[in-house]
Amino acid sequence: MSGPLVPFRQFVLKVHSRCDLACDHCYVYEHADQSWRGRPRAMSPETVSGSVLRIAEHVKQHGIERVHVVLHGGEPLLVGAARLGEIARELRGRLDGLCELDLRIHTNGVRLDERFCDVFAEHHVKVGISLDGDRAANDRHRRYADGRSSYDQVVRAVGLLRERPELYAGLLCTIDVANDPVAVYRGLAELQPPRVDFLLPHATWDNPPPRPSPTAYADWLIAIFDLWFDAGRTVDVRIFESIIRTSRGDPSLTESLGLQPSDLVVIETDGAYEQADSLKTAFAGAPETGLHVLTDTLDDVARHTGIAARQLGLDGLCDACRACPVVESCGGGLYAHRYRTGSGYANPSVFTADLLKLITHVRGRTTMPTHALPYSTVDALAAGYGGEDDVTRLAETQRSVRRALLAAVSAAGRSVPEAWDALVGLDADHPEAVEAVLAHPYVRVWAAECLRDGGDVDHLRNIAAAAAVRAGTDLTLDIAVRDGSAHLPSIGTIDGLSGRTARLVVEGGSFAVEGNEQGDWRPTWRLKAGDFSVALEDADPYRDRHQWAAAPRLGERDVAAWQEMFEQAWRMIDAEHAPYAPGLRAGLTTLTPLAPGPSGRDVSSTARHAFGAVAAALPADPATLALLVIHEFQHVKLGAVLDILDLYDESDNRLYYAPWRDDPRPLEGLLQGTYAHVAVTDFWRVRRQSAPGQGDTHFARWRAHTAEAIETLAASGAMTPLGDLFVAGMRRSVTPWLSEPVPPAAEVAAARSARDHHAKWIIRTGNR
């Protein structure tokens, strides 16, 4: 199986092939591949120039915006400061202006001095240093050939970098479980590195690592993780950050984790292209490609079978890995660590038990099975609020939820192959355009229905077409027509069509219906208030999945009325209910008009799968719209939280009293209502202050109801430990409000209303 060519964005130039230390765990000199013996000590000027030209050629051909180049060895400082300056100058001269160049050097540090630092400062070269922890840990392996310690020289080098922090890239530590993990971490952290890389020692199934216990490497890293996490993550530790990132659907920061394709190539001192250096641990010749910078392009290397095998993602893993619950983070582990004679790399990592335990532990500490959400965010949301960063994190978790649903639709055979292929291709080349369409709230609603009961699979055509329009690319595709209209999610609607499909031709962002019947195009309406804008969605065929009926298509006068009401309501939210405004800005994308409620009643709703959308009938005044938006967006936030966090025991099938409902509610319904009414209470608390004489009874009523419901949840015994924290957060917000004075008449009226409601509920349900 092969896919499109994946261009390289990371380049390792082996500028010197010898080393001044004799580290006994080095993969270059101490493992199966000994090809360094036959290579020149230093990369020649001709090879450097050829390498730089090939990188520049590759960048131009593929339109690459950013590349990483690492000067490596052996020990690259053996080349000397002057020559390193020439190499850096040539790289900058060819690539600056063509792309952003992240230029680094990785060294053992023993030769680093001011002269080298001056050269690196001149050419903007960041410096990473290998150090295995405190003195005892470092001296276990990193010594000179005569046995002398390298520790003092390396710490001196780190001191030079700390004085010039613009050069300091971080520290790399190879794990030895014989070392004290806490002492290692503290020894590294004391040097104030911008980043620490902990590397598992290179090993294979043929030559497994020393293992005093079945999960020794996980236990070693977990000891550091707990210390790091409890201290507030003050140092960037790449393996931990990568687990957290991949758990929420983001790319890994290291090739040893995650499913993204490898985009790294090594150029040896003799100009030979090689795969990742770590393969040297597998067998002699494992990294070789047979290709050379003076005769072969980087595209030739990208097509090499060994490179392609590391770009297949999930499809490139063995059956055991594909079935693993943490595969999206683990990614099968480092490619070299999977090797076994007879089956090659078609195996789990030799560290598979460690990776499973470590990833599970990290996810457990970060409270999420598949996404990372900081405790600070959970705490802010539990209180009923959540700022811009908090809601942005929630929105990010929705990205992978949506994509997982779409992938499941395709895997279930409920998609349209040509539309799916078009969408996959667009996602590879124009991911921002695809994401903008998938983020439209009712795309997820459609996907969920397809999985549940088959749904209208042809709607995928319209999703792909919308992405092509946003991307400004070319695509011809039959799109689905419903009731004479074809809706392109997040963009607009083509009206006046007949039949069940219409052929849409997209060229450079413009589009037209093929043939004589062009249709009438109407973009999605937008509401604006200052610099904030949301879609007014009156056309999406999946917008009618709310509790109340969707309004029919709007005319210009209707839209003008919505615009006036929204602008005034947002001004009120921004001024009087400011704690909610940042979260709304970050997460509210769509307002969906509903038909008027019974007898003119104000109605509003959210749909469980429509993250970002609030539906409401146009109310009589801006204050009511402000309340409805704040109230319903609480459901949006909590729905996203429940997508990724277990707050309650889903097997609990009891029904509970909700003071605002006539019917008994399941536990999730009570939780949702309680969370929404924290905001309702807060709204009336503030509203009665900004408009004296209004809202006292509402405030008195809702604070009592919400406090009662919070205690019902707390006493249910069905909340998870995280759910208990969430309930405690709501209580923390509401409790002070119970002491705020209200006029006695309002207090009496609220109490009478509560007693009457509960009494009627008991009569109606037979429950107490």
UniProtKB/TrEMBL annotation:
Record-linked InterPro entries: AKG_HExxH (IPR026337), Aldolase_TIM (IPR013785), rSAM (IPR007197), rSAM_sf (IPR058240), rSAM_SPASM_FxsB (IPR026335), Sulphatase_maturase_rSAM (IPR023867)
Listed Gene3D superfamilies: Aldolase class I
The keyword Metal-binding is assigned to this record: yes
SUPFAM superfamilies in UniProt: Radical SAM enzymes
Domain Radical SAM core: 5-238
Keywords linked to the UniProt accession: Iron, Iron-sulfur, Metal-binding, S-adenosyl-L-methionine
PANTHER family xrefs: ANAEROBIC SULFATASE-MATURATING ENZYME HOMOLOG ASLB-RELATED, RADICAL SAM DOMAIN PROTEIN
Protein name per its UniProtKB record: FxsB family cyclophane-forming radical SAM/SPASM peptide maturase
